[in-house]
Amino acid sequence: MATGGSNGSGGIIAVGTGGESASGGAPGTGGVAGAVGTGGVIGTGGTTSTGGAGGTGGTPGTGGTPGTGGTPGTGGTPATGGAPGTGGMPGTGGTPATGGAPGTGGMPGTGGMPGTGGVQGTGGTPGTGGSGPKCGPGTCSGCCSAAGLCVRNVTAKQCGSAGAACAACAPCEICSSSGPGAGSCAIDPTSQWTIVAVSGQVSMTPPGGGTWDPLHGDEGGTAPDLFCEYENPSGSVSPTTAGVTDTITDVFTAKWDQTITPPGVTVSASALMASKPAWRIWVGDEDCSLGKCGSAGQIACSYQQPISAASLMSGGTTISNYQNCVALQLSFVCQAPSAAAP
């Protein structure tokens, strides 16, 4: 700043220069204040110096003794403060420390192989059923096996009903599974049979009276010469449709025990039990004329009636007092299923 000039007798007020502005330094001192002059002439303000760069503030000067009343000088144009000093670049706080990569939790611990449970214990021998109801009437609709078990699906090998003991059916029989005879053995309709003429007895007189054999022209004496013949169908005589016993001469009772179905031929049970059989069995007296004997002898009885299932199951039947036969005994023999039937 320029000095204020002479101040009258009051003495000169020395004004210190501001000096050059130091960057950021301590403020400049204000200089020593002169003694207060008397009023005198007011000095001009002088030329305002440029503020320059802001000086340091320094230590402020002491005020001195204030001057007497004189007219106060004008303050002049205040110096511009100049551009304020920059505070410098603020210090960086440094690169903030990184917290580091967050720690991984590590591989989760494996639980290890699951422990084996050891060898599974065996369940032991199953307990017996205790004292439950035994197979028998009231507990089994079929039959009871030898092991005491209820057999509901009966067969020819294990047949029975109402808790009775199971029994095997005879050959050519089946075990009925339904109907009134369920659980009982019955003749298999497809079974195959042969027929045996066991014996026969005829009445003392032939049909129409008189004698069986006249005294002349017949084989042997006057008693009949008996044979038994099977035909299927009736009236057909051939090696495959008919069979006959030997002829027993001059007897009223003959014992044959011979098969009358043709050799190698069987008859089915269904044919034997038919309500109107196609076959017939007859007993005759062999008659010879002019020295020649034929099988078309005089008929004592001709049987063409159903054979009962009971007769087949028992293996035979006796026909009594039928026409001129006092008795005719027949037996029926079950054959293997492979045998051919007519």
Care to describe what's here?
By secondary structure, the chain is mainly β. It has helices at about 270, 310-315; strands at about 145, 150, 165, 175, 185, 190-200, 225-230, 240-245, 255-260, 265-270, 280-285, 290, 290-295, 300-305, 315-320, 325-335. The strands form five sheets. Strands 6, 9, 10, 15 and 16 form a five-stranded antiparallel β-sheet that branches. It has a four-stranded antiparallel β-sheet with strand order 8-7-11-14, with no helix packed on it. It has a three-stranded mixed β-sheet with strand order 2-1-3, with no helix packed on it. It is elongated.
Q: How would you sum up the major sheet?
A: 5 strands, antiparallel
What is the CATH domain class of the domain at 192-334? Mainly Beta
Structural class: mainly beta
Helix content: under 10%
Give a quick rundown of the structure.
By secondary structure, this protein is mainly β. The protein is built from two helices and 16 strands.
